[in-house]
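Batch manifest, entry 17 of 40.
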Amino acid sequence: MYYTGSNDFISPQAQNYGYGYVSQDTLTNQLQVPPTQNVVDLQIKHPEQVEKHLRSLLQNRYLTLQTRKSNIGIATAVDRVGQIRKLSLLFSFIFILLAILAMYTTIRKVIDQQQQDLATLQSLGYRNGRLTVYYSMYGFLVGGLGAVGGLIAAPLLSTFVMNSQKPMFTLLSWQIAYTTMPLYVALGVTLICMLAAYLAAQVNHGLLPAQAFRKGSTAQAGHRVWLEHWNSLWSRIPFGNRWSIRDNLGNKIQTAMGLVGIIGGLALVMTGFGTKNSMDHQVEQTYGHEYAYTQKINV
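Output type: structure tokens
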């Protein structure tokens, strides 16, 4: 039930306003209110058509028809749930991208350090597919542990979000309820981490053991980039910056994943601080400037 008291308050004032229930005898005998039923609850799928029939049937006795979208109490609560759902999806998407970035770069770093060990195992008869599955299990283990930890910590975050909404809504009970969707999301995150590890482990695919052993580090050799064709611009760039540009443009996947991590992390920081600052500014603008008065007279 949404707050319907005075508009002067930002949140409900339980000590000043509330709801009460009285019997029909009290309404009739003490309050002198005739027991006329003027509200009918309907469960319908097409309220527009029902409204037309009611208008033609009741004519001047028709007052109004409220749906879940037009009822301010229900619509406000439903809209708030939709806003929280959109924010949760946005944050989940960014965190999944960061998980892919961390898993991919970690596996590539491990393989770079164990390149000669991998070549030795290949020479002993281990196939590339089996070694790839081995490193994929690393992604499965880490992703699975992270998913389980997220499911365990979810009630704490849900309780925090639910408590933040209690001052704005008045409900009979506040309970945390989950569907099976979080389980599917946890499974999807685990498989995504496993896939990222699998793709990162494809460094020796198609190579013989001797070729993999001579290959050494998985770091790619530097090569010319498209920016070097502009001699006038390239010659003005310091040598250290040339090295950095050539290395970044030559490793497109790592550069893209790094950009995803930076953009995602900065977006989370900006959203966290920006939401608070925006709400503070809105409250200050509304109740510090627009509703600035010393006395109020209701006529």
